[in-house]
Write a structure and sequence with these properties.
CATH topology: Pnp Oxidase, Chain A
CATH superfamily: Electron Transport, Fmn-binding Protein, Chain A
Number of domains: 1
Order of helices and strands: EHEEEHEEHE
InterPro entries: Pyridox_Oxase-rel, Split_barrel_FMN-bd
Pfam family, one: Pyridox_ox_2
Protein name: Pyridoxamine 5'-phosphate oxidase family protein
Number of helices: 3
Structural class: mainly beta
Shape: elongated
Helix content: 10-25%
CATH architecture: Roll
Number of strands: 7
């Protein structure tokens, strides 16, 4: 028997303020970028700071190597995505930030929101993604 359409979750677009509120409450997101071999996605620990996201990675990692190829003072276009879903109830949300990322200077690190990486080891490469585009959707019960 088919479910009544009024019982099915409803998809809604989220405004910028709600998207940034949802991102602010998280700790793990995914960074999407072109590493020179094509698109790739890497999970990162992060901290939200207004309309920016701060994340740290290994100095020898793929993400750091790709981002450090930029011109000093330049930014690399990338995307950052966070979501939360309840698979049993078929509800949740997803937020996408797109913009430019750059390595943080020592001075910027001192002022940046604190990010506590979960993995051990070297995580001394700090980056800031400035959200130029913000979009999100929520799947909710009526």
């Amino acid at each position: 028997m088919a479910a009544n359409s009024s019982d099915r979750p409803v998809l809604e677009e989220l405004d910028r303020a709600e998207c940034l509120r949802l991102v602010a409450g998280g700790a793990i997101g995914r960074v999407a970028f072109d590493d020179g071999e094509g698109p790739t996605v890497i999970p990162v620990n992060y901290a939200a700071d207004g309309d920016t996201v701060i994340f740290r990675t290994s100095s020898s990692g793929r993400l750091n190597r790709s981002l450090l190829t930029t011109v000093i003072g330049g930014e690399v276009r990338m995307a950052f995505q966070v979501d939360r879903f309840d698979e049993a109830d078929h509800v949740g949300w997803s937020v996408l930030l797109r913009g430019g990322a750059h390595p943080l200077s020592e001075e910027e690190k001192e002022k940046a929101a604190r990010v506590d990486p979960w993995p051990g080891g070297d995580r001394e490469a700090w980056f800031r993604l400035r959200a130029l585009e913000v979009s999100g959707r929520r799947l909710r019960r009526p």
